[in-house]
Amino acid sequence: MQTPPRVLTVAGSDSGGGAGIQADLKTMLALGTHGMSVLTAVTAQNSLGVQGAWELPAEAVRAQFRSVADDIGVQAVKTGMLASAELVRTVAELLAGPAAAGVPVVVDPVGVSKHGDTLLAASALDAVRTALLPTATVATPNLDEVAQLTGVRVAAAEEMPKAAEAILAFGPRWVLVKGGHLPAGDAVDLLTDGDARHWLRAPRHDNRHTHGTGCTLAAALAARLAHGDTVPQAAAAAKEYVTGAIAAGFRLGAGIGPVDHGWRLRGAR
Amino acid sequence: MQTPPRVLTVAGSDSGGGAGIQADLKTMLALGTHGMSVLTAVTAQNSLGVQGAWELPAEAVRAQFRSVADDIGVQAVKTGMLASAELVRTVAELLAGPAAAGVPVVVDPVGVSKHGDTLLAASALDAVRTALLPTATVATPNLDEVAQLTGVRVAAAEEMPKAAEAILAFGPRWVLVKGGHLPAGDAVDLLTDGDARHWLRAPRHDNRHTHGTGCTLAAALAARLAHGDTVPQAAAAAKEYVTGAIAAGFRLGAGIGPVDHGWRLRGAR
Question: Are β-strands A187-192 and A174-178 bridged in parallel, bridged antiparallel, or unpaired?
């Protein structure tokens, strides 16, 4: 058997299985890659919110990364919940080091959960801006994260280029600003490197079961980059995958259910 | 969308993505279920062995389990690496409690990794025997774990019923004794509840990339039980799935590569 492309997520665990490394690993399998993971934190979480969180020590994050990078190697990395300033700095150092040289990095600058639970300490914002974002091939903030990181508030799609520029100023090569939180119309995202502008549009699905959307999009982007796609190709493929997953999102528990990572696999199982 | 059957793994994390909750979550997706996870420990691990391990506090294990059980509910549970006597007892208590009443439980009594690294403290063996195994609908020991738990050593397939009886004496409803470590011939497993005997045979694949085999089999068993299979049906389906995954196992790193959890999904991705 040929080895599939290897993709690493550096993120937190969602016990409910809809977001975090669970969403990432499922997405990576669904997109034909070998998913691996560096755990940064473990949450007790379900459809109603986050009931508890336990951070891993920086030493454990480094050791997991070294185990993966030194023996197996990676063809793309995605970061999600990093919890604290120390972990943000630790991960940024690893991504700036030789093990990740030439490897595309997708940074999902996770700030709060779908329920508004804090997944990143306020004291970590500066490390995200100055240490983590410069390592990113693509950063994938939603509009809340844009506001948190840059102060730029976006109320309509035509203001998204301004948000993109503010993020690009921190040093990522590309930014995918996600407009899904805008009030109406298509779900529109803007991908830009400061020169090219790609508007990614998808019909907005009337489905409240969207837990894990952000993780899934970033993981799909990383998986497609590991397959060798260009950034615009990978972003378009990731948007298509997550749109299908949202359309197939299902009820789970009493609150917000997850997107369906297996929507493309039906019939094969 | 209809909610798929919900399956929970209570196990450790393998950063390399081939075993542990990574193998379980991938298997659960491949078999059409919604996978969830309670992390008990985080390992830094690759194709060469286990380079580090960090246990979660018992309180974090309880909180994750409660988040999943109280809001989402489970239709099958699988346990893997539980690390310490305290965590074994914590998990056994949760599985004996009301949240898991009537829910099939697959106990994979993980003792050592494929490389011989210890994943369960010697002081935890008694808790596995007296607290965990009685909660099992099916226990899935390999021959090393049988020897560790019961003292019974098996050198040939005809001695497997004796091993099964010794495990059943601790109280699981069924036992699947895995003969994969026997020196030659077909890979033969014995499933029995003390009355019925089902011999599960599969051709032995000449493939050294078998990391995650045990996790994958137990997770597949749990997934099929969540779909409503009987134990013999689920064991046969799980054996078929893991046999295909071993046949498709691939090189990853310098040592033992993983089985391919996506072997049935090709063409759909």
Answer: antiparallel
